[in-house]
Amino acid sequence: MFYREAGQFKTSYKADQALFPILQDRIGMAVILIIAFVVIPAFANDFFLTSIMIPFLVFALAAIGLNILTGYCGQLSLGTGAFMGVGAYAAYKLTSIFPDANVIVMVLVSGVFSAAIGAVFGLPSLRIKGLYLAVTTLAAQFFLEWCFIRIPWLYNYNASGAIEVPRREMFGFIVTGAEALPITRYFVVLCITAGIAYLMANVLRGRIGRSWMMIRDMDIAAELMGVRPLRTKLMAFAVSSYICGVAGAMMVFFWLNAAEPSSYSIRLSFQILFMVILGGLGSLGGAFMGAAFIWILPVLLKFVPGLLGIDIAAETVEHATFMIVGALIIFFLIAEPHGFARLWQIAKQKLRVWPFPY
Amino acid sequence: MRDFKQLAIGAAVAVGVGLTGVMAPAAQAQDSNYVPLLTYRTGPYAGSGIHIANGMHDYLKMLNERDGGIGGVKLELEECETGYNAQKGVECYEATKGKGALVYNPYSTGITLQLIPKASVDKIPVLSMGYGLSAAADGNVFPWVFNVPDTYWDGASVVIKYIGQQEGGLENLKGKKIGYIFLDAGYGREPIPLLEQLAEKYGFELLQYAVPGAEMQNQSSQWLNVRRDRPDYMVMWGWGAMNPTAIKEAVKIRFPMDKFIGVWWSAGDDDAAAGGDGAKGYKAMNFSGVGSDFPALADIQEHVIDAGLSSTDAASVGGTLYNRGVLNSVIIAEGIRTAQELTGKKVITGEDMRMGLEALDLDEARLEELGLKGFAHPMKVTCEDHAGSHPVFIQQWNGEKWQQASDWIEPMTDLVRPLLEAAAKEYAEKNAPWPARTEPCPN
Amino acid sequence: MNAFVADEALTPAGPQASGEAEVLLRVDNVSLAFGGVKAITDISFDILKGEIRAIIGPNGAGKTSMLNVINGFYHPQEGTITWRGKVRRKMKPYEAASQGIARTFQNVALFKGMTTLDNIMSGRSLKMHRNFFWQVLWRGPAEREEIEHRKKVEEIIDFLEIQAIRKTPVGRLPYGLQKRVELGRALAMEPELLLLDEPMAGMNLEEKEDMSRFIIDVNQEFGTTIALIEHDMGVVMDLSDRVVVLDYGKKIADGPPEEVQASQAVIDAYLGVSH
Amino acid sequence: MLYDIFIDPFVQMYDMPDFFLQVLWEGFVAGILYALIALGFVLIFKASGVFNFAQGIMVVFAALTLVGFHENGVPAYMALVLTVFVMGILAYGVERIVMRPLVNQPEIILLMATIGLTYFLVGFGEFVFGGEPKQMITEELGLPTGSTAFEIGERGLIILQHIDIAAAVIAVIMVTALGIFFNKTRIGRALRAVADDHQAALSVGISLNQIWAIVWFAAGLVALATGIMWGARSDVSFALEIVAFKALPVLILGGFTSIPGAIVGGLIIGFGEKIGELYWGGLVGGGVESWLAYIIALVFLLFRPQGLFGERIIERI
Question: What ipTM did this prediction achieve?
């Protein structure tokens, strides 16, 4: 009843091609943005910002990155974690080489390095497909992880072998380092994630986005329609790795403050892959929903029993979290293999015809 | 299938509702001292983590049960599971710091490094007992971080000193080959600069064998290399599942076990037991008591374990890692007690705790008073020196349990201290602007 | 690379209209084998500009392989292909596409995850040039380009009478409509030569009539040269200007429909005479 | 530098032949173990097209169950029987709860489901058995423990672990048994039919559900054998899970559906890894084992995208 598009006529192709052609969607988006930019900063406590919102946004961005490669271009990747690591190490090197440069610029530039590395590991995708390609990206994962440990130059020869984020200011606000307020970090992360998500939505509705989907849906037909497979796939690898790189850099600069190579291990790759698949392959909104589910649910499971005064041993909660997350993944795959994004569409469809069942 | 979908949507709504719960601010405890314990009883390093967690928990719990806490104020304990995972470590920190946390013991180099810069901002000290960042021993640069009783560099110097003793003097190390097998992470790499320096000084050859984290349980290549190189001694910096695997492999290639020496984190009972009979003779450094023959441990047995207040398996009390956890808690408890004495307050804050730890003086008499005579070397923290470079002993596995195999050995402080200070300076420079110490050391 | 696309393809000029027909594509002595299996043996024929050329033959005669050779998907071991008077070197399929060769497929090869509109828009890929950075910005050149091409695509949608399914994901369309969308996608490329691989397979009579009408309209209105594979002899005889007949990878007849229909070799091939 | 890469390693091999043989033996043993893990993958992939990511955790889970039973006082052989029973229940449960509702989904969805299963089993396993590493009950199961040393010449020495020999023997027995099972029994034939074409198999009256439960059970048995062997080499803990990733390059080499392929692929990776690490790894600081297998598989793929035993792929439209 509330979600009805009847009566909304488009008089130009421009209006028809807008990101949210339907009024209700535009309102919904506006509400989400108001919540993100006004309500949450006004009411949330530090724990909510640092342990829920910031990681959620970082993961959502990484999930967008992987979604471009896997969801839109159809190339399965298990190396997301390592590509994020490349971004993190690049950003770290950049900030130590150019200590006076704006740290946010450095974070955005660091993605270029992971884009380059991503493109290199994307090269075999011309000949290799599906699960076989997954092995290529696994090679990237393990090889890059090894590099993070074995090339001391990357971490400035720190005895600890880890990268530590120095304090940097911008416009009088401390944005990185331990003194940076959660709220400042939250705004930086929110702006970067929302900005990149918007820009990617643009790419995805245009020629390049279509050429990725062509490759995904039927690569041979795409080639016969004039899409150059190598160039298109490499571009997907590069764009995807760029975004993952930025997410990885944000992960250490605005969230963790310090990172060891093991922070970018295969587990991180899986975490992101879960988010993409549960959220819905080929959906930007799905990346956010998937990230919310995979990140926030375990946090809830971990801390809610304590808040309710239920006393459970810490490890039991952890075990339960694993079991519940695993079971829910299977459950959601069975309920709707196309992820939350499709569930959301179904819900919208139901609202559209409500109160009639069809 | 339709029902499934409705259920799925329902579940999503439930998650949303739960979220609002987390947003509510956590209640602050006022009548107790709050000590969060970042532990890991799951994940690949759980094998070592569980014993530590039990030890830490049980001693503090015992103080609550037996003495009603410290200074008449109960301790509020909360375990938070990190799984040795940096992401969850930060999460635990953020979740607990608002409740008036007094001190953090991350038991993971990665999490420690994340907390070090935060410590001075949030004014909560980090106690990384015998791990973490070695440079943190410099209290001038790191007023909020404590790594008593020793740093890895202290440990590395003790191993070399001990090997020197075995060979009848450090000068006899010339021309010897010493192998170093380590977990390929910051933890295992940290001692290398010192070992290299010692190698140069005493003329032995240092051979390095890195074990990647993912290959912890697959070390046959490293040990084949050991077999080829035939080092005279092997030194190990391992953790978690790496330890038992390494010991098994050493047995397999018939390496003389009494020439195989682990760091204090490679000193678990399970680690050595995994090697079976062949592991007899394996040595490891240690700075916490061997065995359960201490009055305080008996109290734990009585007040905590027998009372069913702990998940500890009674047989594991007195194990090296369990005792390590106990020692960690002793330092926490003594820190709190000292802080209470210094400030006159019963319920203290993180800042008070820092003062308490900095004035920590665990002497022979106090240890005896605690029912832990001989459990640890007397240790003292000063404002400048947060590690103290205390003596360490070597213990040996007799096939069933650990036995002390050497006297307390002093680290080569003269060599280590300048390194520590240089490293601290370097850290501060790299992380410029590093906050300066706010309250100067009383000289 | 994809700069050269003839605009004159749009100017109506049937072959019958102009007497001296230009050869658009010529295949000379082409052979193709997979391992030891010979798919095509020594085939030569040509396609004149503006005509409808049919390729027929029993199952396994090598028809689809022939199309694949023409649009660069397979590379023949022997023989040459001459395109607009120039011998073509070995090339990639996307190069053939950029030269103005479009095709449809025997088993519908639409992009299943995309809507009808996006599928047809995908046919415009070669004609859109705004690079990544304009696309990221969207406002301005990229949006204008998109709208400009959208207009062209809407013309095709109108032409094929598929307005109602514009925003429907193609996976949900019935088979007949999918074939039509596929034709639309190929048309969106504004090809000079359109290869149709069994455009009417599996259709009912009504759908076949519609499709035939579209094919003739495309040929007449846009002047597009068409090469099609089809099994329905009635359709072939009605539509095509000239017919090539293949059997076991060899050419057995070539000429106007009525002539081919009368050829003994063709009758034998279809009725099955032992070789 | 060139000398170090191209000549020195071979000189070393020649100079210390006993050591080289030992390296080969270690490579062989590692290869057998990789092959065993890969075998579990192959069984399930062949019959259902599912790339079972949970195979690694099934190895840990089987071994933990075995040790767990024994710790609770069940005699070793009885524990073994009970574990087999548990793996059977697991197979049935997976088929009933996970596979059946997901039939006909794309392979990536099935892959994800098995990753979900991995998470579940990790949590469940730790919940039931605790997180600390356990020691495999090698002796109690009657497996040999010692080692035999062959002394060659003056300093030559080759040490063979009895448990490794046992691993090789068990691997051979398992592969043979599976071969016989696949080729000679009715269920085996049905299984191959299912592998070829689900629809066709259904149409001749083969129960897919039954077949899937059987392959998952078979994979569970393979996992148990693998778990015992790996557990005896290091110990039984969840860190072992990561080793299971090594099965991927093995499968790439050997092909996803070929049992002999899994064995050959495993051996290639095993030999390649050990030789690479011991003779060339030192040049870049060692520890190359963590990625060498993947790079070997990758390079191999670039030249033979269809795998070792696969047929050349002809793309069709």
Answer: 0.88
